[in-house]
Amino acid sequence: MNRKTIIMEIREDLKKYIETEIIPRYDAFDRAHRRDHAFKVIARAVDMATRLGEDIETAYTAAAYHDTGLAEGRERHHEASGRIVRSDDNLRRWFSDEAVETIACAVEDHRASAPHPPRTIYGCIVAEADRAIDPETIVRRTVQYGLANHPELGREDQWERTIAHLHDKYGEGGYLHLWLEESPNAEPLKRLRRLMHDTERLRTIFEEAYNAETTACKP
What we know:
Layout: H1 3-9, H2 12-22, H3 35-52, H4 56-65, H5 77-87, H6 97-108, H7 121-131, H8 135-149, H9 155-170, H10 186-196, H11 199-217
Helix pairs in contact: 3-4, 3-7, 4-6, 4-7, 5-6, 6-7, 8-9, 8-11, 9-10
């Protein structure tokens, strides 16, 4: 589902508020969490909500806010995102207090390392929408995060960090969980795990991402 389709299904004043007041916040985050990431998560969340018969505007809004808490640091960003939702009185123009709380819970529950299932279907939707398990995208975003948060590491150390992160999060027994019974991420996760065992191919993808990102970061 593209942005044009989403625009047709979301109330215009809500969409305008999200795109002018919320999405620009992502411009201050690391390259793996800029507004292009926000729009992709929004698109996937709306698509899943549509297929599941859930409220599209609730999914849209939760997806839009899901990483806003990065302004307070990554470690507890999901909790900060929830506080941002609850404190945004503008949302009461479109949602009841109960709906705002549902949105806040969804953004709090989206984090991949959460030890418990999301409390609502919207938490499941945002969590799944945030996964984006495309092998090359996963490697690129891992490199982007490493360069932004560990700039002191050289190429080989970034490579080792990438491998460790992939296995810690996406490997068998890793902390990522798929919460929907027929998750659209199930098959992509299997493909990513196969790639993780193909060191030569994985290194090629890493090199392409590393070279592209370090070139892009140069003045």
